[in-house]
Amino acid sequence: MEERFRNLLPLLLFTALLVIAAGIAVGASGCFLFLSLIPRHLVTLLAWSFALSSAGALFSFLHLGRKGRTPQVIRGIGRSWLSREALAAALFTIGIGIAMILALGKTRSLLDEALAAISLLGLATTLCIGMLYHLPGQLTWKGRLPASTPAVSSLYLGSSFTLIVSLQYRATCFIHIFFFLWASDFALSVARRQRFANQSRHRRALLFPRLAPAVSFLHLLRLLFPFGVAFSIIDEAFWPVPFVIMAQVVMDRFTFYAGALQMTPRALFLELKDERMRSALHYQNQGEPPA
Amino acid sequence: MMRRVFILDTSKCFGCLGCVAACVHANRTPSGVLWREVLKLPPEEGSRDTLYLSLACNHCENAPCVRACPSGALSKRSTDGVVLHDPDQCLGCRYCQMACPYGAIRYDASTKVTSKCQFCADRIDEGREPACVETCFGGALRMEIVDSEAEPAEYRKEIPGFVHHPEAGPGIRFLRK
Amino acid sequence: MPQLDRTIRYSVCPYNCWPVNCGIRVTVQNGRVIGIAGNPHHDISRGRLCVKGQCSGEILESDQRIKTPLIRDGERGSGRWKTVSWDEALDRIAGRMKANIDAGRSEANALYHSHGNIVQRINWKILTPRFANLSGMTLWDGNFPCWYDVGTAQELTGYWGMHDPAEAGGHAAAIVNWAQDPAASQANLVPYLLEVKERGGVVVTIDPRVTQTAGLSDLHIRPRLGSDVWLANAVAHILISEGAYDKAYVESRCHGFPEYRKHIEAFDPGKASDVCDVPRKQIEALARIYAERKPLCTNLTRGALGKHRNGIQMVRAVLCLIPLSGNAGKKGGGAIWGETVDWNLALAASDRRPAAPYPVNNWNAIDAALEKGSVDTLIVVGGNPMSQWPDLNRLKAQLGRLGLIVVYDLFLSQTAREAADLVLPATSWLEELGLRTSNRRIYLMDQVLDPMGECREASAWMSDLAKRLGVRDYFPWKSKEECLDDCLRSPACDSATVALLREHPEGIAARVPDVPYADGRFGSGTGKFEFRSERAVELGLPPLPTHEEPLESPASSPDLAKAFPLWLISSRRSTHFHSFHESHRHLPTLNALEPGPVLFVHPKDAAARGVRDGDAVVMWNGRGQSRVRIEVTTEVATGSVSLNDCWPELNRLTPGFAPCPESVTRALGMGGQPAYQNTRVEIRKGGEERP
Question: Which domains, and CATH codes, for chain A?
Fold first, then answer.
């Protein structure tokens, strides 16, 4: 595997796992706070969220060149989305732990507040993940729309939990919430596919040109997933849905990193060269002077 | 606001790579790590207008790398706008590499931190020129301190091959006949 | 922080870029070199240092330097080596050499030295030839691949004196770079070109490729490969027919002008335009520059034009334009290229060389000797035949039949790895005391470091080897300094001594004519500039500059040219100097800039073969094949590809053909350059897999 892509794998895993963990936490909190989810099930879900979030944090830690300096990562909180993301992820993970302890306890005091807090922290983390990649020169990453993807994915995942649990109660608002997020997720995946299809004509800016065909294919395949989810629900097979969404999240992170397009001066020079060489070829073949 | 910029006269650069070597040796960069690069655009068929572009860090006005850096290893000094990297604070997270729209930042697997052009801060503070400027045979590469509110009209911010991202505000200007 | 133990010493850059030979200033601390910069007092380089010079310190730092003598521990080319002592190594060499001498075949012992040994001029000009002469060995040197046919043209014409580049920069109204690309090869010349332009002068480039110098030039002419005689003679045609030439000079100081004039009548500019594939307007523009811009300095090809079947004549044609346009013996005129300062060459002891049928330093003779087995022992000193000689597959087979091959070098070169039995560790240029010159001044190459490991300078082990062969007086001096002082006892250099040079980082002026041929006396039999060369007649060569088709061209070999439709042109890039230092694989910065062979291909030729920018291709012809990566670029013309001459991938394909017969070399002492530039190839996609 290409060295540069191998280097991005820890980030791929970190972001995917945190988006999923945040989604589970939001979903579990919603189910408990609004839909009478039993504490035992809450603890199970929180445990999964905690495990995935911790694993993600570990990958992120392993990615650093100078691991001993990790605590300094939050020094840039005033200006760096990475600092903010690190802090949010850390507080989120710790928060899940606290919520788990509270959930295991006899009383319910503070549990509601804790769940609300971790839901917000989880979403804050996903917003930071999105904003982190809103960078000039990154043709497929920049923009508020791509930046909203992680948060929307988390909410979408969370709403699949509340959907499943709400079915016992016929609480239609959760069905509406779910389909609103289903539609948002679908729209964003169409937009992402369009953006990549459009920008990938800048072949020289592709960080991973050899992965481009795979990325294009996966973007298309991704569009089928919402339909899969819809048919699954129509068939009343609800349990696969969260797992399908989790698979989507991983796929989205793969296409995100593998589809990176950075129009550096080096890439732009190569693109201009390609144009000049095409023009020269045309001139040679037709005997016409170059434009 | 006074800021230090590179001025590149593209009609004089002939791609000798002297600036790249001067930088490596003046700054003792890790083996094989080059902070400056020279890009080449071959000529239109039938002409000899090969374009060479010598680029390192552009010490942007609103440097995306400084905004991005979580640990504060990257900072912009107020006196002349030079963006400095402190390897002792660097986490090696490489986020700055993603943030920089110009590909100016390098990562070395042996030191596990990033590095980039420092505008030869030590030399310029002694009143000398950056190593790349000092060595330039063609007189193509210069350094100047300009008033960002009153720049000379002939200083172009963009040429084919170099995009001036206004949200970053790179400190490089071009002269072209 | 106190700068204790920090000293500044002066030397010259360890690359041989003529005519610049840039001075360097070395900062030493605690026995280590901590910085190399330009010598601001040097008359030509003036403190500037190109990319290679700036990276030269990386030679010293490389852990790949050979530090002990090595003997192969397995088959040739196996890559396994054992350390031996100098005594053992020299005993082996002496043993083999003595066996050849005793068998009455002293010519079977051969020594080849080249650019690695030219770094130290005294080794190149005196000490290594002295060893070969006193021991009675065949002596071959890197002049033949580099420039020998150009030298032959000069010898036939009587034109040797080279002008000073700084003078050209300061006085010339025009500089014509004829098959020269200083921007790539000698970047330190560029400020002089720019100086000419700043004064309103013009810079011309004549080269089929769009070179870096072409980008700085006011006029760029791209003649068909090998058609330069037609181009130069067409310019002469215009100058003569318009009367815009120096009549007085050609009548008084030149020989054979009437014959030349008659000869030129056939080189009509309209016909030249067809032959050269150059628009007539450009030929006329070039002639106008010769006619109107005075003085005009010719940056004379130092290798490229000589590497053709018709090399001698092409250079003769260009030389003839110098007096024709009134630029001989004029300040800011003439030609620039090489050094002209001579040492005390008697010390090379060529008069003491025992008689033997030594194969001369001419490719035809060398190839024949290797093919016939006339050579048994080959010592390679600072040279790299398995990368830089032509037709490498053939050479490999020939070398395989030799009894003993010894390589003296800094790193394990291609030759060392593929062919050597013994490898001797070389000192770097700062580990040896030496001398260099610019065109006008003499400089010291100070010894700044102790030799690394068991490295020894060439004259040291040659002295020991000579003793084993019964030569007692190879090194009769008490010290290297005394030796160098003796080498300086020549008419040009006798005002200098090592001690004096050490005190003068700005060098000491050599006694050479400020403006060559200001007195109108040329180095030919007639004492005049020979348009018609009498020496050529004696040697059976054309007396006037005539055109001959390049080897392998569509006109000369149509079938071959059809099978291999692309010219392979060897070129230069800023980052390499021949195959020095294993094509700079051991110097990290230069290696990062060009880590492997890159073939320039025109977009039309690439598209026709379905290959794209960055693809790996196989390049081949009847002599072999090479794997390279391509760069699609308009810097080459259609129908030609070009490769940096530092890669052995080039010479797997070049023809081992030298147009100049041995007889010329016996008479003139030069000639026999292979026609490297007359190579046809084809390319196809592929070659990702290693053999």
Answer: 3-260 (1.20.1630.10)
